[in-house]
Amino acid sequence: MAKILVIGGSLGGLFAANILLREGHDVTLLEKAIGSLDGRGAGIVTHDALADALSEAGIQVDNSLGVAVSKRVTLGIDGENLGEMQLPQILTSWSRLYHLLKENFPNERYLQGKNVKVVTQDSNSVQVSCEDGSTYQAELLIASDGIRSTVRSQVAPNIQPKYAGYIAWRGVCDESNLSNYTLETLFNYFGFCLPNGEQMLGYPVAGPGNDTRPGKRRYNFVWYRPASEEDELVKLLTDADGHYYPTGIPPLKVSWKHIAEMRTVARDILAPQYAEILEKTPSPFLQTIYDVCSEQIVFGRIALMGDAAFVGRPHVGMGVTKAGDEAMAIARHIATLGPTPEALEAYSKERLKLGQQVVARAQYLGRYMQAQGSKGSRDSNSLRRNADTVMAETAIDISTLLVAGKAVPESH
Ligand SMILES: Cc1cc2nc3c(=O)[nH]c(=O)nc-3n(C[C@H](O)[C@H](O)[C@H](O)COP(=O)(O)OP(=O)(O)OC[C@H]3O[C@@H](n4cnc5c(N)ncnc54)[C@H](O)[C@@H]3O)c2cc1C
After folding, report:
1. How far is the CA of 371 from the centre of ligand 1 (A)?
2. Do domains 3-60+96-161+292-371 and 67-90+164-289 have the same CATH topology?
3. Which is nearest to 130 in space by CA: 152, 150, 115, 149?
4. Mutate to test the pocket of ligand 1, among 145, 286, 325 (most ligand atoms within 8 A of CB)
5. The pTM is what?
6. Which of 99, 164, 245, 330 suits a disulfide with 289, CB 3.0-4.6 Å?
7. What ranges do the domains of the chain cover?
């Protein structure tokens, strides 16, 4: 049994902590936030590997994990169906996964209000100091402290998030508020709409209390829109009182003026079904889209995982599944090689290139979306071709492509 510290109590950290605890290790998780992280999360696409990671964490997955869809559709600006594709998937929510993983992990091992400030190591152990003055020691440290990882900033300060040039408007809208037209033509599908240089997508997720009954569900949307870094992005990350949040604006601080502007544009350039959804979503929020691509994820007794290691833009729909995969790999190598730097090196050997490929795949999907604005034609044949490609490539299971090293088509 090894003493292991996990930094970060979101989904990545909870996957690692649950799996390592089940392997018999003495696991302590340090999370800087106090109280539940819930309330910000939206939809998550599931893949087979996510069910595997949940199962290794000791959580049995059944139909209540999410909402099943059978096909994808792309809508034109008049709401017409531009194309469709059969692709059964289960769509869940961040909140659902968070509760499953959090409730499965002992409270006394999940320490809140622990803002990790300094991490050091010697040949036998890792030491951690938190802002509140508390200190911890362990044989290994697993850092799943997110895109702006404090641990990464100490062991690899050169690895920084890079702005992708666009943001996403996100949110969830109650099914019960939508018109029959939107319910019949969009709600039950993984849907897309492709205005010039932009991309809207959405899918149904469970409603409050994880209710998946018809009438009680919600529609989750992600609308990618270009925003210049110096000008538009700064404006969007500034609240109605003029306060600027450079690393991400809290959902309820997004200015009502920007929400109003966004809804006006939606009426002009999106299918009316999506415009209705945006109109009826109470608190749309903003996500700045970044890439994080680490060249090294293991530093002696410290391993980076989850968003601390790699952030692929959400087009791949893989952030949570990737974190689950990484947690399983870490646990597997510790089981074979013990709580040693060698075990973490074996994890790095298995996962470094895969993580880099996920980021490359996400950049490829993002480039394609952006290219429509500058190069793509808007004639209906070209729109249909775009729709077919986007539906076939977005948020699909790419595990076999990753293993084959073909996450990005050779022509790119
Ligand atoms: C509240 C929340 C809501 C989310 N909602 C969605 C969603 O709807 N859809 C989606 O695709 N993805 C969402 N994500 C991102 C998704 O959770 C991640 O892509 C995935 O879990 C893998 O990242 P992670 O767990 O490693 O990092 P993250 O999810 O970013 O979590 C990092 C955790 O580390 C903690 N932390 C950061 N710094 C420190 C420190 N110095 N000391 C201690 N703790 C620290 C943070 O408070 C956070 O809990 C959300 C993340 C959060 C935190």
Report:
1. 30
2. no
3. 115
4. 145
5. 0.93
6. 164
7. 3-60+96-161+292-371, 67-90+164-289
* CA nearest neighbour of 114 among 7, 248, 4: 7
Q: How far is the CA of 410 from the centre of ligand 1 (A)?
A: 33
Is any ligand 1 atom within 6 A of the Cβ of residue 94? Answer: yes
**How much distance in Å is there from the Cα of 374 to the middle of ligand 1?**
34
pLDDT at 373: 44
**pLDDT beyond 50 at 24:** yes
> Ligand 1, atom 25: nearest CA belongs to which residue?
12
Would you say the CB of residue 289 lies under 6 angstroms from ligand 1? no
| Class of the CATH-defined domain 67-90+164-289 | alpha beta
Considering the four listed CATH numbers 3.90.25.10, 3.50.50.60, 3.40.710.10, 1.10.3210.10, the one that applies to the domain covering 3-60+96-161+292-371 is 3.50.50.60
Distance 98 CA to ligand 1 centre (A): 10
Find, among 299, 270, 116, the residue nearest to 193 by Cα.
270
Cβ neighbours of residue 218 closer than 8 Å, sequence gap 6 or more: 172, 173, 174, 175, 204, 205, 206, 207
- Report CA(70)–ligand 1 centroid distance (Å): 29
Banded pLDDT at 196 (limits 50, 70, 90) = confident
* Parallel/antiparallel/unpaired status of strands 43-45 and 81-93: antiparallel
Report d(CA 377, CA 397) in Å as an integer.
29
pLDDT at 381: 57
